[in-house]
Amino acid sequence: MEYLNAAEVFGRIMIEYDYPECTTAVVTALAMFSRSHDVSYRKAEIEPTISKAVSWILKDQRKDGSWYGSWGICFTYAGMFALESLASVGRYYSNDDRVALACQFFLDRQMADGGWGESYKSCTDGVYTQHEKSQVVQTCWVIIALLEAEYPEREPIEKAVRLVMSRQQQDGSWKQEAIEGVFNKSW
Description:
Blueprint: H1 20-36, H2 43-60, H3 74-88, H4 97-107, E1 116-118, H5 121-125, E2 130-135, H6 136-148, H7 155-167
Antiparallel strand pairs: 1-2
């Protein structure tokens, strides 16, 4: 079916694919809804949906602890969403080996300056490709992921926060750095 795609700008648009970013967002939303509303409301539908989605998220996790994302660049973005959703159902670094593996994936890629930087080439090649320079946005995604996972070591997170703070401009903004997202092979 993809062969029939007439749009050269967008690859992988003829077939609907599973995206970790979407599945994880559904898990997070349903878990938050269940905690903040009548817990019996549609429980027979919500609980199995969350369970099936979490099973898919874990099945989609690669052996190195990562997830391949499609909406942002790429492993960093999907990993943030995955760890947020797993935390929303009570899965943390301290009680889940898969979450710990995902945290280690990130920690193994922290750059000397404390940040993370992933190249758009991760999307094209399907493997994590380090950017030559850390990126504020991706560093923030990893900070969020590690905090959601309740990663217990403070130093890697504090080092990352210091990097983000050091790049903040006088007016409170941050400079645009490298590309942050691609979708459907649209680079």
